Amino acid sequence: MLDQNLDFHIEQLGSCHFPSPMLGVQFTDESKRLLYHSHPQDLRPFIAAGLEPPSMELAGPRKQIFFDRHKLSCGIVSCGGLCPGINNVIRAVVMSLYHHYGVRRILGFRYGFEGLVKRHGHLPIPLSPEAVNNIGELGGTVLASSRGPQDAAEMVDYLQELKIGILFTIGGDGTLKGAGTIAEEAKKRGLPLSVIAIPKTIDNDICFVNKTFGFETAVAEAQSAINAAHSEASGAFNGIGLVKLMGRDSGFIAAQATLISGQVNFCLTPEAPFDPQVLMKKLEDRLTHRGHAVIVVAEGTGQELMAATGKRDSSGNVQLGDIGEWLRDAIKSHFAARKKKITLKYIDPSYIIRSQPANAHDSAFCLMLGHNAVHAGMSGRTNMVLGSWNNQFTHVPIALATRQRKRIDPKGWFWSSVLASTGQQGEITEP
After folding, report:
1. Distances (CA, A) of 400 to 54, 156, 180, 215, 344
2. pLDDT tens for each residue of 377-431
3. What domains are there in the chain, each with its CATH number?
4. Is residue 203 flagged as an active site residue?
5. Which of 29, 68, 157, 203 is the catalytic position?
């Protein structure tokens, strides 16, 4: 079946007339693209229909650039929740602008999109190699952050006043959509403003992007919580360790951490709804035969089991019920009703994990993301997301990246591997 909506065309502000100052690097060949589909069976329908298979534009430095680097001013903003690696991306963008292209005026906008609205009074701060030299060692973001949308017209007014030519936005789905509105407003006004989004979501749920920064660090840090839960559970009679990990709509952290740990007996994610009664029965069987159990649950799991409040946060996201506390209380009530003694320890490391500095793997990934984002902006690309696909860095239109959330396929090989690792074999999921 052909998906006619896979439009990977990247907008450009105009022709590139300035030679790149970069020397001794491998420039990206504009004629080369990366196939979206990697399996022959997915390509055959396009070939049979006489259509060119969908492909992505490759990231990297171009021989010719759009902006006059001597007159260019750039801005960087980070939005949404914290995530390991934000500072690494900020540092990489500043270093690349300064050393690769000679850009000297770089402004950091504080407190997310609020910092792009002049009336809020958050004055931008100048960024230089000296200012960002050691920030990669810190968690959080040196620019601070905030949630919630701002008026695109007001943001573009301020960017125009400050003569910003490229705006780099670091954030998740809501930030990408906000960046898209800025790009559209600038286009409507005929402004040569490049908007380059660098996807930041610890949940790894951006479509058409293999992996987002911070995910590897989050999974690694989650091991401490799982190890603690296993120690507590195995050290008590009928011990149960319950760990809640991040994942509003997608359970990638919980699933990947489960695979790495090898100590998890039940992994619960939003993509695979579970039956509480079946879970309790399987938990009873586990305690009878092994004397302890470890459960990992993603935060967005089982929302249908709790009373919905209907409230939304400042980003417009539905406020989730606490599945960790709900499951903790449900397990205790179940065994109390049967007069069976258990020892349950509940661990929620979410804020500890998301505020960690990036690990070595994520640090290198952030560096490459930041550099390639700068290359994209300097070549006049706009309204796009910098991502990776099949081990190469790519450009994805914001509209395509925000079309839907990336989720675990409950019938795919990845989830099958999780089930094989835990031994739950899908028996606790709803029919």
Report:
1. 13, 23, 11, 21, 44
2. 999 999 999 999 999 999 999 999 999 999 999 999 999 999 999 988 655 654 3
3. 11-212+358-389 (3.40.50.450), 217-354+412-422 (3.40.50.460)
4. yes
5. 203
